[in-house]
Amino acid sequence: MGDLLGHLCQRISREGPLNIAQYMEECLGHPTYGYYMGKNPFGRGGDFITAPDISQMFGELLGLWCSIEWLALGRPGPVHLIELGPGRGTLMSDIMRVAKGVSGFTDAIQLHLVETSPVLTDLQRQALSEFSPTWHSHLGTVPTGPALIVANEFFDALPIRQFQRIPDGWCERLVGIDEKSDGKSLRVGWSSPQLVHPLVPKQLAQAGMDSVVEVSPASLNYMRLLSERLNADRGAALIVDYGYAKSGVSDTFQAVKNHSYTDVLAEPGQADLTAHVDFEALITVAVESGAQAFGPISQGRFLETMGISDRAERLIAGATPAQAEAIRSGRERLTHANQMGTLFKVISVTGPDLEPPVGFVEATA
Q: What are the distances in angstroms from CA 173 to CA 41, 108, 121, 199?
């Protein structure tokens, strides 16, 4: 089998079952068969739609946030404007359009995009060529210095590991070969139990029987690196994603294809794999690293605080009826509790000497 399923079966045959993090890494990032390596998954013609595709107002308000934080930093030049997982470049295009309206800001910006997909890199190059971005496969290669960091729906795609409590302790969820399929499909299994597993947070160790705990070492490591950078070089980060304000027990591992949920094992490399973000865990790491953390607050609250209602009314004033309806619909989808407004949350991480960032004055963690 010359595809990802064949590759996975061969690897499992050699090494044994994979944990969920290893499975996600292969499905999303395999250099030949990985989901992000050969396709554009964004937009109505892809598998999912993100906030920048819903309305320009989302990116504009993040651009306003970056502009205000640059001023709060004392207008440093150069300043590294960094986006983690820039998609098609839509969000950064909207951010830069706002930045042009702030005297001196665009001249100070050195734009850095952290991206691993060749397909998406090409799309970003087309969208952002006038700003001469530099691409990186990891935040760790971005030059030191004052920074503004934006990450929208980045952490949800970082690999997780899953653990389930049984009477004998905690066992880890694994992906193996379904022996009934003649080696042509995968199945979920579990490791041997451990009375105490070092990756299960202490506050969740006594969760009820059959509880599932998700841990993302990759996310924690990324947050640690980000926080240490801001602690050393000054700056601020804005992180938007879906997930939980407090660490808890839940199975949120999911696959999305053609705007619908699908079996996480059915078509490896053909569907997006994600899990809900544990914002409490990210904030804990940030603070332990010497940075400040603010939030989480709901996406709806953040956008309303940043002025989405006023922005919508200004856009509507010059719009056709059809455009006005699209603007109203976009605002509702981004902010309403029954849509993205509550499930999606926002946190900010800053250096230790900065005032609470705009939008978070009353949301200190």
A: 27, 47, 33, 13
Q: Are residues 289 and 334 in the same domain?
A: yes
Q: How many CA atoms lie within 13 A of 86 on its CB side?
A: 36
User: Residue 128 corresponds to which tokens in the numbers above?
Assistant: 């952002």
Would you state the structure tokens that stand for residue 55, as one six-digit string?
A: 């309305």
pLDDT of residue 320: 96
pLDDT given for residue 39 in this prediction: 85
**pLDDT of 184:** 75
The closest of 112, 102, 106 to 68, measured between CA atoms, is: 102
Q: Is residue 365 part of a domain?
A: no
Number of domains forming the structure of the chain: 2
The partner residues of 150 in beta bridges, in order of sequence, read 83, 238
Name the residue among 213, 237, 265, 78 with its Cα closest to residue 150: 237
Whether residue 238 contacts residue 281, with contact meaning beta carbons closer than 8 Å, is answered with: no
Q: Using CA atoms, how far apart are residues 248 and 273, in angstroms rounded to an integer? A: 20
Which residue, 214, 229, 248, sits at the end of a domain? 214
pLDDT at 72: 97
- CA torsion sign for 35, 40, 45, 50 is positive
State pTM to two decimals: 0.95
The candidate with the shortest Cα–Cα distance to 238, out of 103, 138, 363, 93, is 363
Max distance between CA atoms of the chain, in angstroms, equals 66
Task: Report helix, strand or coil for 231.
Answer: helix
Tens digits of per-residue pLDDT, 69-90? 999 999 999 999 999 999 999 9
Give the N- to C-terminal CA distance of the chain in Å, as an integer: 50
- Predicted pLDDT at 1: 36
For position 310, what pLDDT does the model report?
97
Domain that holds residue 188: 4-34+161-214
* Secondary element (H or E) of residue 309: helix 308-317
Is 167 within the bounds of a domain?
A: yes
pLDDT tens-place string over residues 131-147: 999 999 999 999 999 99
Residue 328 lies in a domain: yes
Strands 292-298 and 344-350: antiparallel
Which is it for the CA torsion 104, 105, 108, 110, positive or negative? negative
Q: Are residues 275 and 328 in the same domain?
A: yes
